[in-house]
Amino acid sequence: MISKCFSLFAVGAFTAMTAASALAQDAGESGVQAPPAVYLSAAQNDGPKEAEELTLGMWVKAGNVTTYTIGNSWNDWILWLVYDKLREPSPYAGEAEDWLATSITQVSEDARVWEIDLREGVKWHDGSEFTAEDVAFTFEYYREGPANRWTHHSSSVPRMVGIEVIDTYKVRLTSEKPMPNFDRITATDLPIIQKAQWEGVEDPRSFTDIGIGTGPYRLVDYEADRYYKFEANENYWRGKPTVKKLNIVMIKDPQTMFTALKTGEIDGAARPVPPELVLQWKNDSALEMISAPTLWGVWLDINVGRKPFDDRDLRRAVTLAINPEPMLERVVLGQGKSGKHGWPHVDSFWTKPDLAAAHDPELAMSILDEGGYADRDGDGTRETPDGKPLVFDLKIASNQPTFLRAAEIVTEQLKEVGVGVKVTSIDPGSMGQMWRSRQFDLRIADITPHGIADQDMLVILYRGDIKNEMLLDEDKKTIVDRWLNAETREDRLKVSYELQEYQTKYPNRVMLWYPETVFAYRWQAYDNYVPSTGYGIFHKYSFLPEEARDGTVSPLLSE
Amino acid sequence: MVYLRIVLQYAVVLIVALSLNFALPRIAPGEPIDFLLPEDVLANMSQEEHAQVMREFGLDLPVSTQFSNYVTGVFSGDLGTSVSYGMPVWEVVLSRLPWTLLLMGWALVLSAIAGSALGVAAAKLKGGKLDIMSLVGVMFLGSAPPFWVAMLLITLFSAHLGWLPSYGAAPLTAMPGSWDWISGVALRLIMPVTALTLFQTANILLTARSAMTIALGQDYITFARAKGASENRIFTAHAFRNACLPIYTNIMIGIGNLVGGALVIETVFSYPGIGSLIVEGVGARDYNLLQGVFLLATLSVVLANLAADLGYPLLDPRARRA
């Protein structure tokens, strides 16, 4: 046991140092590195590294496991069991390993043209050969076809204007604007789909065939909202998977999910363990827990399309008045990191290392005074310059009790600077419509790594705001335009940092906290889970042999 | 003539119900697209892309056209495609229906037997120990939220004792039809059926007790006693026969509600029935799916009521004369 702990620590520390050193050397960048994952159980056991069959619990359904039925970071990990990307593991870690590509080369100086050499000998699950036609088709389909969570990689940021098959294993892509991070973001996020299966599909959301991928697992049977059965792709080019059969069962109720794990009905729960259970299970001899970074966040969304939030100084005053520290303690029992680190996620590779949101209620009050937001009638709440009470409605989903507690704290803090808040809890089904129609002043919502840990998405969110005429801030628009035209990684990162500083100072989204995500599993069934930044421990790399995991796994330390 | 009038009445009910089934999902705020795509995608979608997704599911059409398509679909058996499942609505609904019928059917049978027997016994022993105990039990169980009872059962029988599986309807790894599979299905039924039975028994017990108590106080009971009839005969042939009409109505309502599933219980136990499908459909604003499920539930209630109406004359000669 002691030797295992020591070796884990040593391997983890070595990996961490090596990764940090590689990142620092690469292109002279100074990207943030996510903290290592940590074992939380009192004893780290040494269970089997292979298994015949495992049953894991999941709580968000995934349709027929295609890019059109999955769009949520809580269930996209089963998509990656079936599909591969050009490079892996993800856009969140900064570094990546060649996967379906053997090399990705920037051809033009302005970073608009890239060439991709593809791996030979890779087979689709139906036995046919993977070629450049499939890659070109994927980009074309995502550029021209119906939108999904991944299509922006070809239709928006970046927008491909040229997709050419050079030969059977080589593709050339040309984009409208520079894409200096193509190999680190687009290539590490876009799943490659099979041309033969998808070229005739016009309504992909009504397509119910089982998706054919090149990944380590084949989906053999499913009943959406009930179960998914996967079988190992024994001929997987990267190595034979360590578990022969994976059964994923849908359990929506959290208590039922964790009871099923405790009783051994499932072998792992792909859902973060709540703080109170973490303490309870720490000494459980049948369970092991790992705290692994998933890069989720909870933010206060400000509707900049609604007056008076078009006034950036008012938004600055709001963020100065909010102190996320008490939320971390009172809302999530200290399990996470405070949002004072600003937006995007503090552990994202793309985040400015010293980024921080200031908390200064005094300054907030003086900004409000200067802006003409004064309490003229002496009721304790300020009024806008044109005499309307400075009171905002704060909407939260009724199925999120932690958000309600956070909303109460936000209300208290804003009241101290003379800003009134009225909290309204509405049914989750209405939240989407409310957001899309912009019928709110403030709202608290969670946000996935795709939204806060991927540099391209930061700009896509800004562009969405601009497109919808919600953001009238010319200064920010100028920075975004400079970002879009930046031709090198360094320039783009530099402008991205500028954008982050600007956003943190004049936010339209105020980070409240970044939850710590703890996952639990039964070590006697399978004890070979590894963390990967942004994905936790339930992902395909946990089911690949040791040698196939190179470059995809983040460090794992003893507590 | 009487039967024709009844059938016409139900036809009108059906038309109104169809209209409501169409309107209700659309009255709720939100559209399917809000749940189909994540916010970061919606934020960056162009009007054309938005329109394209709406077109995929026929939601770009005027509401009147959607309604006429829906009505036509109801009579031609095509209820459209579920937005959240990407499958024909009938396929989704039919895959869930057997599980719900199994769950709700057992709960109805057990609660009907237990509720009627306890209610009748309580009426017979009115004021006695059994009566008081059953009333207290009923008040407690009837007012306890089903999800709470369900969670207590899971905590006791799954987490602590480890006797019963806590979720699902069938073991995933056993071959369907095999003994392991059948026993797995039976084991998974025990807790949800118990939770539902406890809840439903209270209702039937109160109805049975009340009906029997009223019947036992009627003049014809006094007359039967004066005639010298035995207490057993008075109880079964005179009182119970009259009291069984409200019990029958209650049970028929239960049959009508069979296919509606049990929203809370199915969700807590991750039971793949119609109830959890409704929860899913509401959450995703899946209009077609909700229309399909509501249609099925409506038909079931209407048919059960029709059957109840047609059955009354067989149970009660007075209904024949009316």
Major sheet of chain A: order of its strands? 9-10-11-2-12-20-13-1-21
The assigned CATH architecture of the domain at 98-278 in chain B is Orthogonal Bundle
**What structural class do helix, strand and pairing data of chain A support?**
alpha+beta
Please give the largest β-sheet of chain B. none
| Rg of Cα set of chain B | 24 Å
Mind summarizing the main beta sheet of chain A? 9 strands, mixed
Number of helices of chain B: 15
Q: CATH topology of the domain at 98-278 in chain B, which one?
A: MetI-like fold
- According to DSSP, the number of beta strands of chain A is 21
Domain tally of chain A: 3
* Top-tier CATH class of the domain at 98-278 in chain B: Mainly Alpha
Taking pLDDT < 50 over at least 5 consecutive residues as the criterion, the unreliable ranges of chain B are none
Q: Tally the helices of chain A.
A: 17
Mean pLDDT of chain B: 86
Could you tell me the CATH topology label of the largest domain in chain A. Dipeptide-binding Protein, domain 3
Name the shape of chain A in a single word.
globular
Largest interface, counted by CB within 8 Å of the partner chain's CB: A-B, 62 and 53 residues
Portion of residues in helices of chain A?
25-40%
Number of strands of chain B: 0
SSE ordering of chain B = HHHHHHHHHHHHHHH
CATH fourth-tier homologous superfamily of the largest domain in chain A: Dipeptide-binding Protein, Domain 3
Family (chain A): Belongs to the bacterial solute-binding protein 5 family.
Organism (chain A): Roseibium marinum
Domain Solute-binding protein family (chain A): 97-464
Pfam family, one (chain A): SBP_bac_5
